[in-house]
Amino acid sequence: MEELIQQDIAIQKPKWIRVKLPTGKNYRELRHLVDKYKLNTICQSGSCPNMGECWGEGTATFMILGNVCTRSCGFCGVKTGKPENVNWDEPEKVARSIKLMKIKHAVLTSVDRDDLKDMGSILWGETVNAVRRISPGTTMETLIPDFQGITKHLDRMIEVAPEVISHNMETVKRLTREVRIQAKYERSLEVLRYLKEAGQNRTKTGVMLGLGETRDEVFQTIEDIRNANVDVITMGQYLQPTKKHLP
Questions:
Q1: Which residues have a Cβ under 8 Å from the Cβ of 5 and sit 6 or more positions away?
Q2: What is the rounded end-to-end Cα distance, in angstroms, of the chain?
Q3: On the CB side of 1, how many CA atoms lie within 13 Å of its CA?
């Protein structure tokens, strides 16, 4: 009995992580736009605990190319399976929502679309161009998949010139196979390296902590990222989306 109680205590989240139910005018307006234009956000699809706080401040990360991913990363709450056909009206809808929300800096991301010949890179380019046309005062960060490391797809992103192109390493080399089963540590580094060498002004990556990595592994990952000439690195605490995901 004592052991069961200890196990239950061990999985409880600290009080500072617990979030309040979303309320407020900004949250309601953003929710209305997302529902009206049938948009996807990583906030909803990824079961992000910060959704109420971010939406309450009128910010969101738009997710394009649907809400079903062709990959099944152990940390991610986005659905995996066979995606629907590409919605070519999506760039316009996303751009109009950004304009209506008066967003000064938009963050765009997507599911992986390994089922498409272009890996989704064409719609990515059209989305950035649509935001430029409809909301010209908005700067953009594009958090892209690895496009399987195919440079012609990466070139499409460089050509449309978002202010920031991000691609997340997510974890240290030893844990990559477990955390991102269809990804490769070296391939992600090469994507970041290529983006910079091919002329992208600012590159960025992110790493999660709390998946079992060691201090030395974290420092090695930072060094690898630095050697890829990445401009910005962010690190954050991993939170398990559901009990089915990595603890």
A1: none
A2: 23
A3: 0
- Whose structure tokens read 């999506």? 90
Per-residue pLDDT of the chain (247 residues; tens, 9 = 90+): 444 434 444 456 666 555 555 566 666 666 667 666 666 665 554 455 555 555 455 556 789 999 999 998 887 878 889 999 999 999 999 999 889 888 888 899 999 999 999 999 999 999 999 999 999 999 999 999 999 999 999 999 999 999 999 999 999 999 999 999 899 999 999 999 999 999 999 999 999 999 999 999 999 999 999 999 999 999 999 887 777 778 7
At 98 the three-state DSSP class reads helix
Q: Dihedrals φ, ψ of 208, to 5°? A: -90, 145
How far is residue 226 from each of residues 11, 159, 184, measured CA to CA in Å? 35, 24, 18
Q: How many residues does the chain have?
A: 247
CA separation for the pair 192, 25 (Å, rounded): 39
Contacts for 17 with CB less than 8 Å, ≥ 6 apart = 49, 239
In angstroms, the CA 196 to CA 228 distance is: 8
Range 202-221 burial, b when 16+ CB lie within 10 A, else e: ebbbbbbeebebeeeeeeeb
Cα–Cα distance for residue pair 27/21, rounded to 1 Å? 11
Closest CA to 43 of 24, 22, 14: 22
- Residue pair 127/71 in contact (Cβ under 8 Å)? The answer is no
- Other Cβ atoms within 10 Å of 55 Cβ, number: 24
Token code pair at residue 159: 């050509």
CB 77 within 8 A of CB 242: yes
